Each structure stands twice: as structure tokens, then as C-alpha cells.
Amino acid sequence: RPRVLSGIQPTADSFHLGNYLGAVRQWVAMQETHEAFYCVVDLHAITVNPAPEELRRRTRIAAAQLFAVGLDPERCTVFVQSHVREHTELAWMLSCQTGMGEAARMTQFKDKAAKYGESAAGVGLFTYPILMAADILLYQADQVPVGVDQKQHLELTRDLAQRFNSRFGQTFKVPNPYILKEVEKITDLQEPTAKMSKSSSSPQGILDVLEQPGPLRKKVMRAVTDTGTEVLADEENKPGVTNLLRIQSALSGTPIPELEARYAGQGYGTFKKDVAELVVDTFTPIRERTEKLLADEAELDKLLAAGAERAREVARETMAEVRERMGFLPTS
Ligand code: AQP
Asked: Coordinates of motif 'KMSKS' region in the sequence (predicted)?
């Protein structure tokens, strides 16, 4: 079975629809076809300096949500990144293989640095993609299901794997991104050309998986569309409508042209109502399962400990080879 690895940051009190459609939903499908490793990347989350209580709470929420969407500990390995020390160890080794200019080209860093101010942005934010490369390469992943915002980081990961292999001998699989075109970038409901994002979207622009039906419906109904009335996919002129069509199509499995035909001549009202109901119907069972899982922290922590145990086995094997190849002396 090919291997798959992906991660999600515990940087909010819930995943949003973009995380769900762009990434996590594919994770669920891939646990059936791949040997799958999925992690809550808490070490990535500290690049924005959360309070300790917040990090603890969000890490558990993220993990509970992963189980709640359907990841099954019998079929895949779900773990917390910081529980497997090899991630930071390999990140250091890879950072010594990365050029400053190469790292400085990463657009996500540039965007975030612009947001926080160049001097306030920490070194961790700068080296974030190298830690991400370590996450992936440790598990010898063949595929990495992500949204399009992570494509550049995946390219860096591939470059680092190839560079390491040619310098020290074949060690790492060179991974491929797995990006589903139709859902690669779910956009902000209020700013339909910008990505829906945990940290940059306004509360009105984002649909959180753990949100109650009332606010979810309200936000979809108030989503920015345009002054026209036609429900048509047109990225350029109707980005808001196009985003909602993509969401409806992904959640219902109905192709966009069929949806366009269904709403012909009806205006936006019925269309938005249907999208809202689909979102509520998808999120409600996930929220209920997440709440149940969070009610028993000891059991949740036990599931994560078992996941870390399995992940560690693979990570240790890769690290032993990396150390050997780079010339580190063996430990006793
Ligand atoms: N809007 C999106 N559309 C499609 N996919 C998306 N992803 C994120 N936003 C969208 C994908 O979700 C996975 C997990 O994301 P992450 O936790 O690593 O954070 P991110 O990519 O940085 O997303 P956010 O929501 O903007 O988080 P913050 O604000 O914390 O940085 C990834 O596979 C991502 O591609």
C-alpha cells in the first residue's frame, strides 16, 4: 500500500470548511487505500505563540475532530506531532540542507510576515516549511493530500528529498502532492477571492465545522455574491457564487452544470438556502461526535498515545538511516 501523510494545525477552536473539503475529507477516503499517517501539527502551531492553555485545548479539539470526521484508529495512524521527537530532529538536519534564499521565497511566510510585521515574525515561521518537509519525509510518504496553498511547501519538500538523496544516497521517498482541483481553494464568504483561513478570515467569512446551525445558516445566506441573479460558475465575474457552487457540488456529489440547470431562473435565495442546509447536515453529526470525544479526555489521550507509538516506529527507522548516512556516530 502506498503511504500517505498529512497534518493540520491546532490554530483555532475548530476546523473550517476549507480544511474539511480541501484536505481532511480526502484523508478519510485515503485511509482505505493507503497506509495513512495523520498528525495534529502542534509544533507548527507554536509559530504564532499561542497561550499554553489554548494550545492544549486546541490540540485536543483538533484530534477529536479528526476522529469525528471518520478517521478510524484501526485503519490509520492519528497522532500529535510533538509526541514524536524525530520531527524536530530531522527538521534541524534538513535546515542545514536548505538555502536561505530558497526558504525566503516561500509565499506563505512572506504573507504572514507582512501581517505580523517583518520583525515580529519569528524564525519558526520562517523555517516552518522545513519542519513540514521533515513531517512528510520521516514517513516516506508517497502522497500528501493538501489544499493548493501548500503546493509550494510540497515543492520544497521534494527538492530537499532529492538533494539529500543525491548527497547522501537514496534515503527518502520523493512525495507527490495530492490536490483535488475542485476544492483546492475554498474561499472566504465575505471576500470570495481570498482563501478561507483560520487566522485571516473574519468570523462572517468562515464556516467552522463545530459551529451551531443558526450561525452557519446566517453566514451562508449573507455570503457575498453579486448584483446579478444567475447561479453560474464564473470565477472571474462571480467568485462568490462560484465558491458556493463548488461547496454545494463537493458536499452533494452533484456536478456543477447540473446545479446551474437546477437553479436556472430562480435567483440566489433558494440556492443559498440549499447550500446552508447541506453545510448544516454535514457539520452537525461531526460536531456531535466531537463533543462526545472531548467529554472523555483520558480516552482521547489514550488514542493519541497509541497513534504516537505506531508513528514513532516508522520515524525511528527513518532517523536511524538519516543519522548513519550523514555520518553521526551510533548511540550505544
Ligand atoms: N480555504 C482552503 N481551501 C482548501 N484547502 C484549505 N486548507 C486550508 N485552507 C483551505 C488545507 O487544510 C489543511 C490544513 O491546513 P493548516 O491547518 O495547515 O493551515 P493553513 O493551510 O495555514 O490553513 P488556515 O486555515 O489558513 O490556517 P492558519 O490560519 O492557521 O494558517 C492544509 O492541507 C491546507 O492546504
From this structure: 195-199
